[in-house]
Design goal:
Blueprint: H1 3-10, H2 16-34, H3 44-59, E1 67-70, E2 73-76, H4 86-101
Antiparallel strand pairs: 1-2
């Protein structure tokens, strides 16, 4: 299932044009962070979470806000939405590197 479809399940009220823009922005940022051109399937759930976070940030119109307290509620936004997924990105890159090196230096005869 595509990132766009999965976001629509979580946020059915989202404007289609805005959804397309947020998905494109999130995918571009993830791909740049990972140094890839196509989002790996293993990271689609991360992309869905990021698009939803971007939408929530847009919806609340508090782009520059880092933290706000109202009575017992606290709202905090990250400067870098992707930073929350730094561990996921690192682990993905480690696994990818291990897979690429798995057959390095091995000679196989058919």
């Amino acid at each position: 299932m595509a990132v766009r479809d999965r976001v629509l399940i979580r946020k059915p009220e989202i404007n289609q044009a805005l959804l397309d823009e947020l998905v494109m922005t999130a995918l571009d940022r993830i791909n740049i962070r990972l140094g890839v051109t196509i989002l790996p399937v293993e990271l689609e759930s991360v992309a869905v979470d990021i698009v939803c976070a971007m939408y929530n940030k847009w919806l609340n119109s508090n782009e520059g806000m880092k933290s706000e307290n109202v009575d017992t509620s606290k709202v905090t936004f990250f400067d870098d939405i992707l930073s929350e997924y730094k561990t996921d990105f690192s682990r993905y890159l480690e696994v990818k590197k291990k897979q690429e090196n798995a057959n390095r230096g091995v000679l196989r005869f058919l």
